[in-house]
Input
Amino acid sequence: MAGNVRQTQRYLTQRLRQAGVRPKNKYGQNFLIDLNLLELLVRTAQIEPQDVVLEVGTGTGSLTQRLVEQARHVISVEIDPQLHQLAREELHGAENLTLLCQDALKNKNQLAPNLLEEVEQQLSQGAGRFLLVANLPYCVATPVISNLLALARPPETMTVTIQKELADRITASPGTKDYGALSVWVQCQAHARCVRTLPPSAFWPRPAVSSAILQIQFVPELRKRIPDLDFFHQFVRQVFLHRRKLLRGVLQSQYRKQMPKARVDQLLAELELPPECRAEELSVDQLLRLAEQFRQEVQR
Output
């Protein structure tokens, strides 16, 4: 493998100029140039020698190199053909690395099937964990995290840099402005914590917003509380579509073909939820119980 892949602003500008590459806004290309923060990201991930690591957004390969030094195998995905080629040159000789040039997503609700097949193939070859470690492009951070959590075997941890605003949404508490469907979807099956806030100056090109290192720890015992994960995911999305509306009205509209309005009121009363409550005021546990009530009702 090539020597240490540096990621200072000076090195990056020179290297990209040599390769005839410019950062592309449409791909959310903001490179982490603070090496101390890059090392913090890797340390926080606590990669073990048998782990299989997924990285979305190879970039120039700076983080990728650190991952291949610690993991059994790294699968790194880059949508930009020019950056993919540059990373191949920088990381030449890394035998425990699969570099894919493609979109990590088939669509906003599904990861690319061949990417998942590659992950499954690598996991079948050993007893290590599956981890996500990435400086996630802003434009795909939400669907990548959300869709990984929908897998039968999600990553045991996701350690990522994302927009601070998104980190706030994921870790938000009920009744706050940031609390929404994504908060519930993550917290219903994982513990999430903001490790460090990152200033715009930590990246090049410099973004207009602050970022954060976020870690999501999947907890199997939390997921076991959910009888039908797909139903719960859809239920949460639906009730938060009109987060400021009364929950009673949202549910009556959503299930108007399956049950009369009086039955919706009865189900809310059974859970001791007042008619004037809103979805954004309910805890994850309350939403779990509510969703299960409606699932049983509509599947009778």
